């Protein structure tokens, strides 16, 4: 069985935020904005004006730090009396995930409003819970993809370049994860097989990022999106989201289980974690040295970590490598690989990455 899913509506461009009220009116009459405290300050008033101008009631709740059960439960308690029928999940990956979690519990429809392209969370039905120590606890799923995705590139172009580097990392890995998942007969995020469309979207995503990623990063933080920036944002949010959900994941996302057990790596953005893990993935595939060297050149241009040290890990020894390898092997996505892997295979690939010339 092949299954493909997507948001009902995707809108991208400068000023897209002004459509929030009109888009929400198609899904409900009482709109709740969920975000972290920084994003609430950044776009909260614009969201309120747009929603109320469309004749809808508006309320907001916010959080700090990670998407934990405690943070989500507190926001749900604050919003329950308001009884929203549509939730705006606003922010980067964490804000989007928090909005999904709150909307899921309250049974509301969901509209994602990314303010940074740090991950491909806006289009998918997945969301992640973390512990108070930043360790990944679980990956949950909405019953459907978001009703709409509003991508205001003038807002996203204000975000720091490091957030876009994370988004490029998270999106880039999807091509090679899709290839391994399809080759091994592994399931996509629906427990089914990939469509032609999803596999091509994952490949196209990487092509756009490799061509335009460094140029887009030069614009990041300026607030002035150009054509390269627009293409990269579409790749990071739309192409990557549809590509991974429809094609499946492999080693890079499996390794987040291991990396999140190392405090310094756990503190890094998700996209930077999986970008490092893609280097390990390439070693497990026995990619030619020339190919790996070219990818390392791109990593330098895109601000991505190619070693554990570049990911912030100060001590890389056999204990650290063993923890990462053992926990990675336990992640279900590790099965989506062309050959059966052991913890020793993963550990040896990590050693090979760490021994690579700079």
UniProtKB/TrEMBL annotation:
Keywords: Metal-binding, NAD, Oxidoreductase, Zinc. It comes from the Bacteria. InterPro entries: ADH_Fe/GldA (IPR001670), Glycerol_DH (IPR016205). Binds 1 zinc ion per subunit. Glycerol binds at residues 120, 170, 253, 270. Transmembrane segments: none annotated. Residues 7-153 form the Alcohol dehydrogenase iron-type/glycerol dehydrogenase GldA domain. It catalyses: glycerol + NAD(+) = dihydroxyacetone + NADH + H(+). Its EC number is 1.1.1.6. Gene3D superfamilies: 3.40.50.1970, Dehydroquinate synthase-like - alpha domain. Its cofactor is Zn(2+). It comes from Haematobacter genomosp. 1. The keyword Metal-binding applies. Pathway: Polyol metabolism; glycerol fermentation; glycerone phosphate from glycerol (oxidative route): step 1/2. This is Glycerol dehydrogenase. One of its GO terms (molecular function) is glycerol dehydrogenase (NAD+) activity. It is an enzyme of class 1 (oxidoreductase). NAD(+) binds at residues 93-97, 115-118, 124, 130. PANTHER family: GLYCEROL DEHYDROGENASE, GLYCEROL DEHYDROGENASE 1.
